[in-house]
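Here's what a typical entry looks like (TPR repeat-containing protein):
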Amino acid sequence: MSYSQKALDLLEAGKLNEFNDKYELALKKDSDDLLYSLAEELYSLGFSDKAKEIYIKMLSKYPDEDELRTNLADILIGEGHVDTALNYLSEIKPSSDAYVQSLMVQADLYQTQGMFEVSTEKLLEAKKIDPDERVITFALAELYFVMRNFNKSIPLYLHLIKQGITNISAVNVVERIGIAYANDGKFDHAIGYLKQIKTINMTPDVKFETAFTYLQLKDYANAIEIFKDLRDTDSQYATLYPYLADALSAEHKDEEALKVAQEGLSVDEYNEKLYVIAAKLSLKLFDEKQAEKYLRKGISIDPDDISIALELSNLLVKQERYDENIDLINSYMKDDQIDPQFYWNLAVSYDKQDALKDANKYYLAAIPYFKDMPSFLKMAALFFREYGDLQQSIALMKNYMELVPSDDEMAMLLEEYRQ
């Protein structure tokens, strides 16, 4: 038995001192082929220092063996010695058999540093040299996937699947292409791949993507089933709760949806989206007090989230709490945080408070945003009629009648103007 094999046996047995002794003997007495195999084994077991020592020893003996340089560079990158690794790689010329591998190592290095363009250049150069190498195709697909450039990653994954390659480097290519299609908004294509994977074999992320894709396709039953399975297997997966609540609400299961939102808040109490969902569900269940509680809590967590403030503003207008609504919206207007609905809500609030000048101002501000909304046009037309701006009232009535020609009451008012 060679010293290399004895060293590995001792390492497997956990006898590190004896392993070191046999390792030193292997360096002195074993053949180069045995040492190279020993280095590969040691690297795979996590003993990169020992592997690096062997590679350096062999490179001094075989300076033309560029594969040793790529192996060394790979180890050095893992140790954080990037410059030294690049020095080894730069010594490998395009004519070398190891050049493609050196490009792959460089691409991986630049990707970890966030230099995606350089990484892409290296992989494209490698693919040009060896266009049929599946590892290069996969690496390029994965890089585009990480860059969220899904329209470029999808054809590469498809190419692998057409070659019969569904698993590579511990990655399920079918999962990848399904997720890529989903992120690219092509949900019909995505589900065709994702549903091929048994739920039991899905990772939490794949379960989420699959359920989310069903949700986008309005297949609420399947979405709910998989979201619930994800919740049962990983209750701390906070992202699932808003979408599970939405799916349940779409199926008119509002009470269960509210419980899901509340459960989600127990997992992530700072998820302002869940506060909005819980508030909307509370309103659907006729609990305005609880809805306001959720909205105010959401605002306290993220005061800059206009969507939450807008929901609270709508509730205050509904409850005819006009002074509170004016104070709420003005606090956002001061910071130039404006949603067009704020104009409409302010106009209504000032109108109900008989502050007609301010109401006029905000109705005028709202018109460009709601000129195709019948409910706004009718309300604004009647306001301007009472305010005395007949020209504006007539213009809005005409717009309204184009959208709702069956409204006899408004038709009669418009006819009065014409007389």
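The radius of gyration is 33 Å.

More examples are in the samples folder.
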